[in-house]
Amino acid sequence: MAMQTVIRNARILTLDERDTEYAEADIVISGGKIEALGPGAAKEAREGAHVIDGKGLLAMPGLVNGHFHSPGNFMKGALGNSPLELFMLYEVPPLMDQVASPRFAYVRTMLGCIEMLKQGVTSVHDDCFFVPVVTDDEVDAVMRAYADAGIRATVTLDQPNVPEHQKYPFLKDLLPPQLLKRMSEVRLMTDAELLGCYDRFMANWHGAASGRLRCAVSCSAPQRVTPAYLQALGRIARERDIPYNMHILETRLQRVLGQENFGKSLIRYVHDLGVLNEQAMVIHSIWVDENDIALLAGSGCSVAHNPVSNLKIGSGVMPFRRLQKAGINVCIGNDEASTDDGINLWTVAKVAGLVHNIGDPQYDDWPRPVEILTALTSGGAQAMRLPQPSGRLAPGFQADIILLDLNSLAFTPLNDLRRQLVYCENGSSVVTTMVGGEIVMDNRKLLTVDEEAIKAEARSLAGEFSDYMVRCKSAADELEPYYRQMYLKALDTPVGLDRWAGPMVP
Ligand SMILES: [Zn+2]
Q1: Residue 159's closest CA among 125, 129, 119, 187?
Q2: Separation between Cα atoms, residue 189 and residue 180, nearest integer Å
Q3: Which of 19, 210, 391, 488 suits a disulfide with 378, CB 3.0-4.6 Å?
Q4: 416 CA distance to ligand 1 centroid (A)?
Q5: Distance 475 CA to ligand 1 centre (A)
Q6: Confidence of residue 447 (pLDDT cuts 50, 70, 90)
């Protein structure tokens, strides 16, 4: 019979559909899921159960990092603020050719796991990119780190496969011939090579670690892959009912790209190619118009909202309430340590709870704290398409539970629990993190990872990484003037809508 764990006498925020809260109640956990919950539920526990005293603690569902790129984990503070198109030029330069070593990829992934588990993030949806090509060794290193850390992870292979200049408007005409030639000669993975990587990835890792690890698919963005590959991934997502990650209309320039290169919005483009459906995980969705919102809503897809990343790279403000009124499921993510300069989902939640106040003067439409908390938990779980119900505290749900110390300053004095979770908490009140019924952090100590050893190894790799960043910079610098011209030319192209908080300077 499975070992039981009982959390006794905790304050409980279930974040269920009725937003049920208990001033004092118990949770009985067995076989990785919640068996019973409520006042007096501990009476149903068997003798010999592991008992956690919940007095003075808040139990709530673990957070879901709804959109994340673990390859950015070494890049806190590494890059300044600039628009996405220039930012990516320095983060993943198209003329760069150095592959990460498996050990570096392991430590890099583990560093993110440590930061997330300590703050009560129990699930992560990692859209894992590879520079310059996907290798099985790097994929396995990433997945081993997730297996060892004890976090729940759904991971993709995010790998563009068209020449860089095809991903943008105007760039081909702006580049001098010799740079265009070098860009055209960069080795790209074929559709068949990438689908082969997915075959091995799925065979080795989908459902591994007792179902805690899952595979998903990613095109990165629809303009970054061949239409045939875009559709092949769509077939895999549908057959396996797994998420299909696609960054769409993150920036204004991408709206111009849709008009210039495809003659339609990129949302309409994926719809017309048959890959916008309930498996679709549409990331950002900022520069969408009303027709796009109707297509998103009709498809049953989820949207990932990453407001700190959107602020750092000046992408604009997602129309949160319009998506919500259309009935679209929204989750919240960090995006990555390079655009977030941290992996703190509580900070992202606070910004999500604030930024829409300057995006919409109708103050009745500003997000409410419980909506942010729901997006952080069941919204993220729904977008990950996990087979077991997750993201709420209720019988039958996955036991992904965190305990927060209500004696911390964030909750002293306690005026409004939901508001203080969104606007006061920074992750430091989390004392216990449980994933699938397994305690991975107990009294602020990680049980699955030697945190100090990983941090020491990360510091020892920092020199090698800064050399890599120097090479990235020189690979990017020669292209920068042409990307800047492209950005300015796109600014001069009307798109018929505005998602910046301030009016565009003419
Ligand atoms: Zn992203």
Answers
A1: 129
A2: 19
A3: 391
A4: 32
A5: 22
A6: very high
